[in-house]
Amino acid sequence: MSEKWQEDNRKEITEIENSSSEEALKAPYYNRMDIVVVDFGDIKGDCLLRKRRPAIVLSRTEYNEHSPIMQVAPMTKSRKGLHKKYHVFIHQQYCNNLRGSGMCMLEQSRPIDRRQVVHKIGRINSKKLIHEIAQAVSYVNGLEDVSGLE
After folding, report:
1. Strands 95-96 and 52-57
2. Distance in angstroms (rounded) separating the CA atoms of residues 94 and 98
3. Which residue of 37, 52, 90, 145 has the lowest C-beta tally within 10 Å?
4. Residue pair 116/38 in contact by the 8 Å Cβ criterion
5. Could you give the CA distance from residue 26 to residue 126 in angstroms, rounded to a whole number?
6. Residue 145 in this model has a pLDDT that exceeds 80
7. How many CB atoms lie within 10 A of CB 61?
8. CA–CA dist 70, 30 (Å, integer)
9. What does the alpha-carbon distance between residue 112 and residue 118 come to, in Å, rounded to a whole number?
10. Under a CB-based contact definition with an 8 Å cutoff, are residues 102 and 77 in contact?
11. pLDDT recorded at residue 143
12. Per-residue model confidence as pLDDT tens digits over 71-98
């Protein structure tokens, strides 16, 4: 491959990435601990949660405001595995506008394009619940005990 072709190809990819990011930044941003409906797609054959489903916004509001992506954790109505440290029960009484309780699966947290959000459905309003979610995020990412990492 010629260097000219590689350079042209690199420029084209950068232009596509920039235009995609610009489009995503036009989509609304959401606040940390908002509950939103996300279209996670419909790929079969893996063990990730898919389809449209509620998710909790985990990334900071300040980050979400300026980034085309944000970190979310999907929710499910199932309570299977609720005893695990990376699952948090989300009771509707601790959320604004949530119609039913469910379980947040922090091991499946992932970045999404802001355009994948269909709409906002609520917000977590309990400091205790926010703390439980933060603990589960720390556990999943191995941040609960960093003292031995030096």
Report:
1. unpaired
2. 9
3. 145
4. yes
5. 30
6. no
7. 14
8. 9
9. 12
10. yes
11. 81
12. 999 999 888 888 888 899 999 999 998 8
CA 52 to chain centre: 13
> What gap in Å lies between CA 136 and CA 142, rounded to an integer?
10
> Residue 1, class by beta-carbon neighbours within 10 Å (0-12 exposed, 13-18 middle, 19+ buried)?
exposed
What does pTM read for this prediction? 0.80
Token output for 144: 């609960």
- How many alpha carbons lie under 13 Å from residue 8 in its C-beta half-sphere? 5
What are the tokens at 67? 């980034």
| Phi, then psi, of 11 in degrees rounded to 5 | -65, -45
Domain 3-141 in this protein, CATH class:
mainly beta
- Tokens describing residue 104: 């947040």
Give 45-77 pLDDT, tens digit per residue: 554 555 889 999 999 999 999 999 999 999 998
Rounded-to-integer distance, Cα 86 and Cα 102, Å: 14
